[in-house]
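Example 3.2
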Amino acid sequence: MIPWELLDSAPVPGGGEALHLYKRGAEFSIRVGNRELMNSRAHGSEDRLAELACARIANRPRPRVLIGGLGMGYTLATALRRLGGEAKVIVAELVPAVVTWNRGPLAHLAGRPLQDRRVTVREGDVAQILKEDRERYDAIVLDVDNGPDDLLLKSNDGIYAQAGLDAAFAALRPTGLLAIWSAAPDRPFVQRLRRVGFEVTEVRAPARGPREGGRHAIWIAERGA
């Protein structure tokens, strides 16, 4: 077995544990401590997240999408494939090093989506961006941490709290949608979404591909007109 090689480490703004980028052969892993946050071999559910969100808005004139969490670029790359040339995609990433990694050792994995002219990167907390923007987005796609009930970075808790969901609702245009990835189902979280005013659909998606790997949860929360 080829051993993992540590390529880089980066602090998380606001404190807490650092992120670590590892490589083993052609495989990459981003970890917090000893727990894996993402792996280049398992992105099927992230692809599905972007597909479900962008398929619903692709035909709107000049759709505007906010993606919270760059990861290894797979969610962004799938969104770009689903959207037309007039779309605008804003990527919010809290850890600047993750952006650097996606322009360096990870760039080839998802086909260098950060080079797409439709993409703007905002280095910062997506929760703060949601508080600042009002009725700006047709879709908000959150691929942050491991979901609302399995956080590796406690600083992400506010995104999934009631106030964070209220901010997401307000940042959507009428008939916009919020798409959220999670490592596991979470009934109390679905109830919070509904209390905010969203109509919620839950989808289970395989981690590695059409039929491979454990199944992750995706919520499509739609705002009415």
